[in-house]
């Protein structure tokens, strides 16, 4: 997650210094090491595979034996996740899923998946696999390789998720509104009349990257591309209108905890009775920079304003302060 935006920037700007550093970091041996380390959780491995796939997509693999080997390694892992790996997120779901594909197709069917609404939620564990599948399919196309049927299937099902599970409301959109309403992480969400429980902004900050590569994958299909572009445009407005709150008096932003502008506490259940993340505390995602993948003038202007007042945020947030040099570079990238 740390390196996603530097990867995009280095190739956009043709910054050979960063590209060389990335080439030393992303190797076949490191992929093997990450896979085999028992102390690295499965979500982190999926995140790493997505990141490396995006590096390979941007660098290209044609004529490069090491990168081709890396591509084949990640593809094998993703296809195994997709078709074979145990895919239940919660044990109490209505059935056992073997392969992410089974769970995705079942959730798309809308059938009952257990007593809790969040048992039907799409999570990072599926989204990273689908995102990586889309990225790999783009690598195949660029390298003129034979298209892998499973990757085409992943790409098409990801689009279906974004079509069937998105709800438009008041010129914004939400993915599976109310699906998290009974999840313990969301127990402190206070709703106004007719308001739904929606994703926290931090987890949803990966969405701009997914929309970006989906648009690349469907750029020859005008209907699908235009739909995805609409989601991109509206999400940019959502970031600026619902999540980021600008104070013109001092030129700083505060950030609401949820994508619909709700600013309730989040994840207090994980903090042993404490308040968890209090209002406007869940905003480190802004500094990872994935929102920049929306690539709109409004988002670029937001980051320019954040850059001007960067010391304010690093003072307020211990995690940002701990990595302030790195995060400041991310914010400053254009």
Terminal residue distance: 18 Å
% residues in beta strands: under 5%
Describe the sheet with the most strands: 2 strands, antiparallel
Query: Which of globular, elongated, flat, extended, rod-shaped describes the shape?
Result: globular
What's the alpha carbon Rg, rounded to whole Å? 20 Å
Q: How many H/I helical runs?
A: 16
Weakly predicted, low-confidence segments: none
SSE topology string: HHHHHHHHEEHHHEEHHHHH
Mean pLDDT: 96
Structural class label: mainly alpha
Strand order of the largest sheet: 1-2
Task: Kindly state the number of beta strands.
Answer: 4
Helix content range: 55-70%
Jot down its keywords.
two-stranded antiparallel ribbon; 16 helices; mainly alpha; 334 residues; single chain
């Amino acid at each position: 997650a740390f390196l996603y935006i530097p990867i995009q920037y280095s190739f956009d700007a043709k910054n050979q210094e960063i590209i060389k550093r990335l080439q030393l970091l992303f190797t076949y041996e490191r992929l093997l090491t990450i896979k085999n380390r028992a102390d690295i959780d499965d979500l982190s491995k999926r995140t790493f595979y997505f990141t490396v796939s995006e590096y390979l997509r941007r660098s290209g693999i044609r004529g490069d034996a090491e990168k081709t080997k890396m591509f084949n390694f990640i593809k094998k892992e993703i296809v195994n996740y997709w078709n074979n790996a145990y895919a239940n997120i919660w044990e109490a779901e209505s059935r056992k899923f073997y392969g992410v594909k089974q769970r995705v197709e079942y959730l798309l069917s809308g059938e009952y998946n257990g007593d809790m609404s969040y048992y039907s939620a799409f999570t990072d564990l599926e989204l990273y696999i689908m995102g990586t599948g889309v990225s790999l399919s783009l690598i195949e196309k660029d390298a003129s390789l034979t298209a892998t049927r499973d990757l085409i299937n992943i790409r098409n099902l990801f689009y279906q998720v974004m079509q069937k599970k998105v709800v438009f409301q008041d010129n914004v959109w939400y993915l599976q509104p109310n699906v998290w309403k009974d999840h313990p992480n969301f127990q402190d969400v206070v709703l106004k009349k007719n308001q739904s429980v929606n994703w926290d902004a931090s987890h949803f900050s990966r969405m701009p990257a997914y929309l970006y590569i989906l648009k690349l994958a469907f750029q020859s299909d005008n209907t699908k591309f235009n739909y995805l572009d609409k989601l991109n445009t509206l999400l940019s407005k959502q970031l600026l209108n619902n999540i980021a709150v600008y104070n013109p008096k001092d030129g700083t932003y505060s950030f609401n905890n949820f994508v619909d502008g709700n600013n309730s506490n989040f994840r207090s259940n994980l903090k042993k009775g404490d308040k968890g993340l209090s209002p406007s505390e869940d905003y480190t995602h802004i500094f990872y920079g994935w929102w920049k993948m929306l690539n709109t003038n409004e988002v670029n202007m937001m980051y320019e304003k954040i850059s001007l007042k960067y010391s304010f945020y690093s003072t307020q947030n211990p995690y940002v302060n701990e990595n302030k040099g790195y995060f400041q570079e991310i914010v400053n990238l254009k």
